[in-house]
Design goal:
By secondary structure, the protein is mainly alpha-helical. It has a single domain (about 1-190), classed as ABC transporter transmembrane region fold (Up-down Bundle). It contains 6 helices and no strands. The chain has helices at about 1-40, 40-50, 50-90, 90-100, 100-155, 160-185. The protein is elongated, with a radius of gyration of 24 Å.
Length: about 190
């Protein structure tokens, strides 16, 4: 219980200090970049914004999976820490030795540690999948914008400098959207 309370307090501090501030900052950044993009070329800005709901959809879908894994991981960590607290104090160690339960305790600890390890691997694998999907969405959005933008440059609707500037802003826009979406990967309390 003490371990879980300590972890929750640290996660809450982290969420307030880092995650919420990053979300406000990124929101301001997104609005500013979108205004500049619309002023450069509204059609490309609209095409860029079409990908944004997909970021949100992916975050919602995978967020539910992350939430379940994080909760299970916290429960297993709490059980393992409680078991260590019971068995590694002087009284617990004496009782284990007195009743010859050393092997049983090693087996029980090994099973709990194995479960913690498996959940950690599962969480890391999900995070990698999440990042790969976000990277794919970014690549699709960028390809669409450069495709339409290249066609517009060929039609002399605007200059190549405009598409280059637009591409730089597009990178900033997608990075700003990925940053708050990635924040929950490190803060289980926000899930």
């Amino acid at each position: 219980m003490i371990s879980r309370l300590n972890n929750d307090v640290v996660d809450a501090q982290d969420a307030v200090n880092r995650t919420l501030v990053a979300m406000v900052t990124n929101t301001i950044h997104v609005v500013t970049v979108l205004v500049v993009m619309v002023s450069l070329e509204w059609r490309l800005a609209l095409l860029s914004a079409i990908i944004v709901p997909l970021f949100v959809l992916v975050a919602q879908q995978l967020g539910e999976v992350f939430r379940k894994i994080a909760r299970k991981q916290m429960e297993v960590n709490a059980r393992m820490n409680a078991g260590m607290g019971e068995t590694l104090n002087v009284g617990g160690a004496l009782i284990i030795k007195l009743f010859g339960r050393h092997e049983d305790e090693v087996t029980r600890f090994g099973a709990r540690a194995d479960e913690v390890r498996k959940l950690g691997i599962q969480r890391a694998s999900m995070a990698r999948t999440f990042m790969a999907v976000l990277g794919l969405l970014t690549a699709i959005g960028t390809a669409l914008v450069y495709g339409l933008g290249g066609w517009m440059v060929i039609r002399k609707m605007f200059t190549i400098g405009t598409i280059i500037a637009f591409g730089a802003y597009l990178t900033q826009l997608y990075a700003a959207f990925q940053s708050p979406v990635n924040a929950p990967l490190s803060s289980p309390l926000l899930w």
